[in-house]
Design brief:
Helices cover about 40% and strands about 15% of the residues. It is an alpha/beta fold. Helix 2 packs parallel to helix 3 and helix 8 packs across helix 9. The chain is globular. It binds nickel (II) ion.
Length: about 260
């Protein structure tokens, strides 16, 4: 199994990080991608990837931290990206739910990092919350400009119609614990309808633990619960689902 989105640098893993990472293989994981959200966690992602073979790094500035983006930060990201363990830019995007950074700054910083990813020839991991239309408009304008640029919409929480529009542009869709929640009607519909070749699995750990672990600290091994649920929704075997999602993840990250 592959987990396309983890935050193992998070403080919630401070007391058992090493042990947990060393046990990933035993729990059936063969790759996890540690995602940065600001400069500090981007550096931590690269350090983890340098230390552990099973981890690859994704670096970038989350919309929450967009206000801290400047030329110096961008130069540091460029420097970090020289490390071959860095597989993508992310998570970047728009978050109009928390509005931790002003919206015009979020848009500006999202666009700057898309340009950066294009320059570095790296795929992009997108975070989008309460900003479905704005995110879509920005991504589709860049897909027109740079056809080869790859986008993954992480923790996809939009409608089936929006999913279809993203798929039409060749974007990837990542689903996680939310599909196992009782009242998640729309994510379940997306899990059923998304073309298998566009689908990735993720935990977003330590956040969003799936049922039956809901409310606990999420861990990469809990990805099996979301995988089982999605296989069940699609009426395919777990093996068939994992074969496809693992291949998709490697293809997306060029790994
Ligand atoms: Ni995340």
């Amino acid at each position: 199994m592959i987990d396309s989105h983890v935050h193992l640098d998070d403080a919630k893993f401070d007391y058992d990080r090493e042990n947990l990472i060393e046990n990933l293989k035993e729990h059936g994981l063969d790759r996890v991608y540690n995602i940065g959200a600001d400069l500090k966690s981007s550096i931590a992602s690269v350090e983890l990837a340098d230390k552990y073979e099973i981890i690859k790094a994704v670096i970038g500035i989350h919309p929450h931290a967009a206000s801290e983006y400047n030329q110096e930060v961008e130069d540091k990201l460029i420097e970090l990206a020289k490390n071959e363990n860095v597989r993508a830019i992310g998570e970047i995007g728009l978050d109009y739910y928390y509005d931790n950074s002003p919206r015009d700054i979020q848009v500006q910083v999202f666009k700057k990092q898309i340009e950066l990813a294009n320059k570095l020839k790296l795929p992009i991991v997108v975070h989008s919350r309460e900003a479905a239309k704005e995110t879509f408009d920005i991504i589709s304008s860049y897909k027109e400009k740079y056809k080869d640029l790859k986008f993954l919409i992480h923790c996809f929480s939009q409608s089936v119609e929006m999913m279809r529009e993203y798929v039409k542009m060749g974007c990837y869709i990542a689903l996680g614990g939310v599909v196992t929640f009782k009242n998640s009607k729309v994510p379940k519909e997306v899990a059923k309808e998304v073309p298998l070749e566009n689908l990735l699995l993720e935990t977003d750990c330590p956040y969003l633990a799936p049922e039956p672990m809901r409310g606990k600290r999420n861990e990469p091994m809990f990805i099996k619960y979301s995988a089982q649920k999605i296989a069940e929704i699609r009426g395919i075997s777990l093996e068939e689902l994992l074969k496809a999602t693992d291949e998709n993840t490697r293809r997306f990250y060029n790994d």
